[in-house]
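Task card 7
Instruction: Convert sequence to structure tokens.
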Amino acid sequence: MQTSRLALAALVLAGPFVGKAADTASPAALRPTEDYVPEALSGMVRPRSSELRELVDRFVADRDELLRFYTVQGSRLQTRRLREFYAAWQKRLGVMAYEGLGTEGRIDWILLSRQITYERGLLDRQEARAAEMAPLVPFAEDIAGLQESRRLMEPVAPEKSARTLDQIAKQVASIQEALEAGLKTEGAKEPASVAPLKVTRVVASRAIASISGLRESLEDWYKFYDGYDPAFGWWVRASHEKLNESLDGYVKLLREKVVGILPGKDEPVVGDPVGRKGIEAELAHELVAYTPEELLAIATRELAWCDQELKKASREMGYGDDWKAAMQKVKEEHLAPGSQPGLVRDLELEAIRFVEDRNLITIPPLAADIWRIEMMSPERQKVAPFFLGGPNILVAFPTDSMDFDTKEQSLRSNNVHFVRATVFHELIPGHHLQYYYEGRSNTHRELFSTPFWVEGWAVWWEFQFWDLGFPKSPEDRLGMLFWRTHRCARIIFSLNFHLGKWTPEQCIDFLVERVGHERASATGEVRRSFNGSYPPMYQAGYMLGALQLRELHRELVGPKGMTDRAFNDAILEGGPMPIEMVRARLKGEKPARDFEPAWKFAGPLSP
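Output:
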């Protein structure tokens, strides 16, 4: 059922779904502004939610102050200062009176203590990675020293500074020569004239990022003095220019010859696995009491459920059990260029009505009206081939500058049935509503934000919409099942990658073959997952967080006394935190000072 390029070109021009925009615009065009202000402001006056709210705010403000002063990422001085800061905070927390705290205060104490432990662990990981790339960046502390001396207001020594830059340029030339020798010795018969240096793509990619940060620090240092101190410019300017030229050539070698990033070509997906120890640290931070292998078993079980539902929908469409063929048919049903914003608007208004008709959650008028649609650039779509959300929704759809193959794959990846399952995830009742509450309730808990809470919340609504019959046709169900299967796959490929079992290419193949991705969207998804923008367990947090919320809903809603609306409101009003702490809060528990995660939210697993 693969659509030919010629047929797909015709779909682009005409489109099976013209997507005529509804006559109504956003409710923001009609609603009186007065409705955005609560009628009873006195109802917003509540006792302080947590005894430790100001304490958490103080930690964040003080830590950020340190990071604004010690700006060279990973330098020995920055690391030492942060270690001392975290140790002092841990000591102060340790002598606080704990037993007198209520549920909210205990939650904040536990989360702050564990956050400090986690950040200390990240410093350990950072130092271990820095040691691995030290042969490529032996000059890191020299550059850091220049900037940090300025921060400490020590007098600048122009001649000494010029000598330092000159020495770094010579180091760069020596490293570059050794790297080139290492590249030549692969299969060469003659011995190299210098000791060859060989590094992996992962370490080289890490070094490129490190050098970029060091150069920002170097430029900040240089611009502070140049043109202000006459002696500085006389001594340093030529050495500075020479070093910049050396670093340009060095980074070019690392990018093109080692990592394989070629001009005009899409960057290869490299990533930087954290290993089992790193995953275990992330799970401890998320308060998840499962091993990586148990999480893989959970994902496999959920994937089997998806397979059965995919086959059911496929049969209804006349494709038997061949759900992949049915999925290809679904992908053909997309809008013509220019029609996507109208569809997004209409789908979100439908989702809001769906939620309000069932009294599932409180949607304040301001949240219901003031959301925005933005279109993603072609470059952004290379790492985010589908919609993104938060305060607004970012729409992925082809632009005129894309080549034909990329346009084709983007159209198919953002068809009307996939979009129907995405818009409410990104806006209301998903991320947009979540952001609205985060800015107004327990704002200090931004420190404790976790993908299991952020992304799990949006996928939890996918679960609810499915159970309440939001998909209107088997095609709509396939659209929702694509995403549900995708969430399972994220757990599987991210854990296997970080455990060192799969390469990025294997992850891409898995998404194409097991989920039904277009290869371009699969590549963008894996690139986004491993390019360093997200913590290691971020992608796993979507499905796992939703499973946690589903189990918590089973524990508390209905016969247990809570309504759907009270349950969902309470989650947002409490602010971001690991879901096991959400559970303690909603149940009114007072967790012990030595709390350790123990909740088995997924039930028994098959041996």
